[in-house]
Structures are given as C-alpha cells and as structure tokens.
Specification:
63% helix, 12 helices, Heat Shock Protein 90, phosphoprotein phosphatase activity, transmembrane helix, 356 residues, phosphorelay sensor kinase activity, five-stranded mixed β-sheet, single chain
Length: 356
C-alpha cells in the first residue's frame, strides 16, 4: 500500500526535491557572492528541514488516505455489488474531497447499475409471463384444429366450405398471436428496428382496412373512413405504425357487437401542427374503473376476462410503440356505448424518431 502511494505521488516528491535543491543552490551562490564562506551545517539544514516537512506532510496524508484505500481494496477483492460498495464507502464518511468525489461517483454508478438490472429483470419477467400466456392461448386453436381433423376422419365434419372457414378462423388466431409475440421480442431492440419516413396516413389506413376485410365481412361490421381530400402526411415508421393501427382495428372488431351491422369509424383530422387518427367502435365500451389501466401490461379487465383470446398485451405494446415513436395514444370510452382510440401525431415527430 505504501509503495503504491509513493509511486502515485512520485512527481510531487521529485519536484519538491528539485525545489529544495534549487533553494540550496541559490542560498550557496548568495553567500559566495557576499564574500562569506558557506557553512556546511547551514547547507545541511536547508536540505534537511524542508525534506522533513515534506516527509511529515506525506506521512500525514498517507495516514489520512490509508484507511480509505485499505477499505476500497478490501471491497474490490470481495467483488461486491457496485451499489453496496458505494453505500459502504459513504458509511465510512470520506475524509477528503477526493474520497467524497469517488464515493459519489461509485454511488451513481451503483444506482445506474441497479436501475438497468431492475429494468432487465422486469423485461424478462414480462417476456416470461407473456410467453406462458401466449402458449396457453394457443392451446385453444390447436385443440380446435385437432378436433376438426378428427371429425373429418370420422366423416362427421360439416360441409367442406364451412370446414375451411372454421380452419381459417383458427389460423387467423394463430397469425395474430404470432405477430404479437414477434412485436414483443422486437420491442426490446426498438432503436435498431425503426426507419423514420413520411407516410400518407389515409393510404396506410385504407391498406390495413383492406387487410382485415374478411374480419369485417364475417362479423358484419362496416368500416367508415373520414379523411381530408388532400393527402395527410405524417412522420413515423410504417412497420411499427401499421402494427399499432392494426391492433386498434383488431380491438374495435373484437369488442364491437357482432353480426348486427354496426360501424367502425376511422377519422383523420388535422389541426395546426397536429394530426389525429381515431378509431371508434359502437361496442360494449370499457368500464370506468378499467379505463385508466388499459395500457398496463397483462391487464385484461372485465371485458378481457370474457374474451378467451385476450392477453392484455395488445394495447400495452401499442402504447409503448407510440411513446417511442413520439406519438400520443389515449382512449375515451363509455360503457355500453363504445370506445374511441386516438393517436396524435405532432410536427416534431420525425425529430423524435430520428433521435432514437
């Protein structure tokens, strides 16, 4: 420990000795110039006394640093968690500003480490929980398809077109579940999977409505798109935004009253520097006590518990994607009257996306 301390302060010791030597030389030349004879004892005193003060100062500083450095070495050898080291050093009450600075820095690093570790653990728990839920939900279409195959082998199945339609329904559930799982995995590497671009919002919505046209027809629901006559340009990422809008359409289809000819209204409005895209259904609505929590992970609420395919991840992922793209997503609902989901695009969205 002493050897390390002296090596670290080698430059201070060297220049101090050079300063003493220079002082001796100046004193010697001054005495010679005055015509006197320099005394050997005085020359030795000029050398010894500053050297003694230097040694005393180094000794005092070493004693002040020794306990701290020894404790740091001990903690390093034990390889404790960074935050534990910071708290332990803080408990020792640093005796110098340098020690206090190091303690503060180690504490900051420890807190940063704990934060990232906690975030990572939460992500892993969330991924694990969603995977378990997804596997559980996918058992239903697997069981239905197996039953349909068995009925076909036994000759008890319904007509072939009906058989294909039922099989397509189960395949659609598979597709949606797989897409949800894929987006959950991709969200962890969002910054590496985003491509800022300018999009025609109305054209994007039309393509997604057309993609889901079979679901609209099957459920006897009718989409109504209200958009300005001119193209509405917004800055976003096409792939991620398509996922969000598709999720909002899927929820509107799922929670609308089935087979009664109701409408799902998609409206695009521009006001000042903001553009709003809203998806409104005339369905069962959201209970007031559930509305503040619909964007929480795994929250299904009263409505979700009645839907076997509800995972509580769709709106959570949509909210996360919108937040990272610089958009706002909020919901308005009245139980029994329907729900309106709205995405707000601002003029500085492209800047936010590029900065990811």
């Amino acid at each position: 420990m002493l050897k390390t301390y002296l090596i670290d302060r080698f430059a201070i010791i060297l220049f101090s000795l050079l300063g003493i030597g220079t002082s001796m030389l100046i004193a010697y030349l001054s005495i010679i110039e005055s015509g006197a004879t320099p005394s050997a004892e005085n020359m030795i005193y000029i050398w010894i006394l500053p050297g003694a003060f230097l040694a005393a100062g180094l000794a005092a500083d070493y004693i002040r640093q020794f306990s701290f450095l020894t404790y740091v070495k001990k903690l390093a050898e034990q390889a404790s968690a960074a935050n534990d080291i910071g708290q332990s050093l803080k408990a020792r009450k640093p005796r110098t500003r340098e020690q206090a600075l190091w303690t503060k820095m180690v504490n900051a690093l420890g807190q940063q480490y704990e934060g990232r570790l906690s975030q990572y653990i939460n992500q892993q728990k969330q991924h694990y929980t969603f995977t378990n839920q997804w596997v559980h939900h996918m058992k239903t279409p697997v069981s239905v398809i197996s039953l349909m195959i068995q009925e076909g082998k036994n000759g008890t199945a319904s007509s072939f077109p009906t058989f294909l339609e039922e099989l397509e329904d189960e395949n659609e559930r598979f597709r949606h579940g797989l897409d949800m799982m894929l987006q959950t995995a991709r969200l962890e590497e969002f910054a590496f999977d985003v491509k800022p671009q300018t999009l025609d919002l109305a054209e994007l919505v039309r393509s997604l409505i057309n993609q889901e046209k079979r679901q609209f027809i099957k459920r006897r629901l009718f989409p109504k798109l209200h958009a300005p006559p001119n193209a509405v340009q917004i800055a976003s990422d096409q792939k991620w935004l398509s996922f969000v809008v598709e999720q909002l359409l899927f929820n509107a289809l799922k929670y609308s009253k089935q087979g009664v000819g109701e409408h799902i209204t998609i409206r695009i409005e521009t006001e000042g520097h903001e553009t709003r895209l809203s998806v409104a259904d005339e369905g069962i609505g959201i209970p007031p006590q559930d509305l503040p929590r619909i964007f929480d992970a795994f929250f299904t609420g009263d409505n979700g518990r009645s839907m076997t395919e509800a995972t509580g991840m769709g709106l959570y992922l949509a909210k996360q994607v919108c937040s990272r793209l610089g958009h706002q997503l909020y919901a308005e609902s009245k139980e029994g009257a329907g729900t309106v989901m709205t995405i707000v695009f601002s003029s500085d969205t492209l800047v936010n996306v590029t900065a990811l």
